[in-house]
């Protein structure tokens, strides 16, 4: 059998030896270094006399059917079940024609079609990862998605300085850079520090202004796009603040994750983008970052919400955080209104309602939402929570920014606070009708 064609589906072995249906997205002749890195899954034998022995070694870029694109990867032909042959795609039923709604405007239809076209174009342009591994500090991390790095940096592996986030193509360049780099923490100001109970390390958060540290924030966005499917912010970082979470020790502050938010959000969002890098996932840092965003909202005296739609991982983290905070409030204060819950937690009311509905704890009765919660049900929910790693408000050294002066304000103060000058009296006309000068 020949090389599988783009668009065909085959059974492909994962590295654990299990077979999964995958669609061929792209193919290439693998470079020598890729052949050395190729890992054959359990139960799959390397072909010592086949393609690897020749100068031509084909690899296929595959997407596993019904799995997230983060698992897409280059695989050697040895992992493809060529003997079973290509698997035919299941026919997709044509959508039933729907009657047009009378209130649907031509502009609405055009906007919808444009959004679909942009989404399709985005998928086509980003379907193949252009960087496959990054070395960040002591970790070597497999990437998940495409990121728009400059063409000369679209290589198998990038080396990233964990302090200034400058990226390089060679390890020797990184070593030289680390001798010269003066940073040992993110730029900007430290707004949070709490020593760990074990001692020796601390959890820190740095506020980095996108307009003051543009290159750092652009590098952060490019690197985070490797792990976020639909992130679109790469270079226009000026309107954003970035809050970088780190683990600090004697060597410096090592980046764990971050969240960003607009300096001025007309929709009242307190978070635009959130990411915990893979080595630190499933350690509670996602909830820490979420709780940090809400603690800052409390200091500002505002109610906040994350930008929608949330990613699959973001939705899980937020729903878990909201559930914990709301159930704890309900446990401590059995008689409390929805508005009071929102004020104390800084969580928007619609997020409160959706979370309680997901927990099946809310009913709509006599025109209002009523929480139905017994002590037994409450305890059962709390049994499912692990020890929460949340932001400690006592360790925050941050004050809300002063609102910018409105155009009607002047340097001397707000014109509304000063008495208006009395208008000059109009000069009386002379007998001949002319006005005095």
UniProtKB/TrEMBL annotation:
What cellular component GO annotations does this protein have? NSL complex; NuA4 histone acetyltransferase complex; nucleus
Gene Ontology molecular functions: histone H4K16 acetyltransferase activity; zinc ion binding
- Pfam families, A to Z: MOZ_SAS, Tudor-knot, zf-MYST
| Residue ranges, compositional bias (Basic residues) | 418-437
- Xref: SUPFAM superfamilies: Acyl-CoA N-acyltransferases (Nat) (SSF55729), Chromo domain-like (SSF54160)
One Gene Ontology term of the biological-process aspect is: regulation of DNA-templated transcription
EC number(s) per entry? 2.3.1.48
Residue segments, region Disordered: 27-50, 88-109, 401-437
- Which residue positions does the secretion signal occupy? none
Keywords (alphabetical) are:
Acetylation, Metal-binding, Nucleus, Transferase, Zinc, Zinc-finger
The record's annotation in InterPro entries points to: Acyl_CoA_acyltransferase (IPR016181), Chromo-like_dom_sf (IPR016197), HAT_MYST-type (IPR002717), MYST_HAT (IPR050603), Tudor-knot (IPR025995), WH-like_DNA-bd_sf (IPR036388), Zf-MYST (IPR040706), Znf_C2H2_type (IPR013087)
Chief localisation class: nucleus
- Catalytic residue positions: 307 (proton donor/acceptor)
Q: Which PROSITE patterns match?
A: MYST_HAT, ZINC_FINGER_C2H2_2
Kindly provide the name given to this protein in its UniProt entry: Histone acetyltransferase
What organism is the protein native to? Phaeomonas parva
């Amino acid at each position: 059998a020949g090389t599988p064609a783009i668009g065909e589906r085959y059974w492909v072995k994962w590295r654990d030896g299990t077979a999964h249906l995958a669609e061929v997205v792209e193919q290439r002749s693998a470079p020598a270094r890729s052949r050395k890195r190729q890992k054959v899954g359990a139960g799959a034998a390397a072909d010592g006399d086949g393609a690897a022995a020749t100068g031509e070694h084909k690899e296929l870029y595959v997407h596993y059917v019904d799995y997230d694109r983060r698992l897409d990867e280059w695989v050697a032909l040895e992992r493809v079940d060529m003997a079973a042959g290509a698997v035919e795609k299941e026919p997709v039923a044509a959508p039933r024609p729907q009657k047009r709604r009378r209130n649907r405007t031509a502009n609405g239809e055009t906007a919808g079609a444009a959004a679909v076209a942009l989404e399709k174009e985005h998928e086509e342009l980003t379907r193949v990862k252009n960087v496959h591994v990054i070395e960040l500090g002591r970790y070597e991390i497999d990437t998940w998605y495409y990121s728009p790095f400059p063409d000369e940096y679209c290589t198998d592996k990038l080396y990233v300085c964990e302090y200034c986030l400058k990226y390089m193509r060679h390890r020797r360049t990184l070593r030289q850079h680390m001798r010269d780099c003066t940073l040992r923490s993110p730029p900007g100001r430290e707004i949070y520090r709490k020593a760990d109970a074990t001692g020796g390390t601390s959890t820190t958060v740095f506020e980095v202004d996108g307009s003051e540290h543009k290159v750092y924030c652009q590098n952060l966005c490019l690197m985070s796009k490797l792990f976020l499917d639909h992130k679109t912010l790469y270079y226009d970082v000026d309107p954003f603040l970035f809050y970088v979470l780190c683990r600090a020790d004697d060597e410096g502050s090592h980046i764990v994750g971050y969240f960003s938010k607009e300096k001025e959000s007309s929709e009242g969002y307190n978070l635009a983008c959130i990411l915990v890098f893979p080595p630190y996932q499933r350690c509670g840092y996602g909830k820490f970052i979420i709780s940090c965003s809400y603690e800052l909202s409390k200091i500002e005296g505002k109610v906040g919400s994350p930008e929608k739609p949330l990613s699959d991982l973001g939705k899980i983290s937020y729903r878990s955080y909201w559930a914990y905070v709301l159930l704890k409030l309900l446990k401590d204060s059995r008689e409390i209104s929805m508005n009071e819950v929102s004020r104390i937690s800084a969580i928007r009311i619609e997020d409160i309602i959706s979370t309680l509905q997901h927990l099946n704890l809310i009913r709509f009765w006599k025109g209002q939402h009523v929480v139905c919660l017994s002590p037994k049900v409450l305890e059962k929910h709390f049994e499912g929570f692990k020890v929460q790693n949340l932001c400690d408000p006592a360790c925050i050294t941050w004050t809300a920014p002063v609102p910018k002066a409105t155009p009607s304000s002047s340097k001397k103060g707000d014109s509304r606070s000063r008495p208006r000058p009395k208008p000059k009296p109009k000069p009386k006309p002379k007998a001949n009708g002319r006005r005095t000068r």
